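50S ribosomal protein L15 structure dump, as promised
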Amino acid sequence: MQSHHLTRRTSMRKGRRIGRGGKRGTYSGRGIKGLGARAGGKMRPEERDIIKKIPKLRGYRFVAFRVKPVVVNFDTVAKHFKDGEVVSPASLLERGLVRRVNGRTPVVKILGRGEAKKTIIFKDVQFSKRASAHVTQEKK
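C-alpha cells r here:
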C-alpha cells in the first residue's frame, strides 16, 4: 500500500456555520426572522418607555396626576336623600350613587342640575358654581 492509497476515516470538510451558538443547527433556536433572530436584537426596557410617557415640564404648579372628582347632580342627591340628612362621599357610596376609585372613597363634586326643594346638609364635597348657588339659596 502506498501513501496515495490511504484515506481518512472522517472527512476534512467542516460542517456549515449556521446561526452560531447552540447545537441545533440552521436557526439555532432563534426562530425565523424578527427581532430575536438578529444579532443584538433585544427588547427595550419597559421602565424607560413608562418614564418617557409621563408628562414632564408643563409649567408652574402643574399636577401630572390630578384626581378628578366623581360628579353627582343636585336632583339625584335630592331624590335619594331626605330633609336634614347629611350628604358625604361615604353616604353617597352607601346609596350606590358613586363607586370606589382604586379601592378608595372618591372625591365628590355636586353639579347644579335640578331644583333645591329640600334642606340637605353637605359634608366633604365640592360644588360647581351653579350648585353652590343652590346651596346658598337653601340657607336663606
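The mean pLDDT is 82.
lmk if u need the other ones
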